[in-house]
Amino acid sequence: MAEVNANNVMSGLKGMMQATSSFLPQPLATGVSFASQLIPTGSISDTGITSSYQALIDQQIQIQLEQQQVTFVSNMEKSRHESRMAAVRNIRVG
What we know:
With 94 residues, the protein is mainly alpha-helical. The chain is built from 4 helices and no strands. The longest helix has 38 residues, at 52-89.
């Protein structure tokens, strides 16, 4: 059996994240423009939302995307582990 080390695991996870990034959902809008779509009348400046919040909103969206990626990879690895363990659990000592 091949030896597992941290570098192999990390490079494998990095490759999986790059390969699966196209399957992750993308937000329809980012930043303040998203808030402007929720408010049918007036402009963003009329609502009291200033441009200083745009960075915070963009950062929150970025963090949510990263959380989705981590969750996706975690679920994939959990499924992979469970499928391999199923074979081990099915081995019966005669």
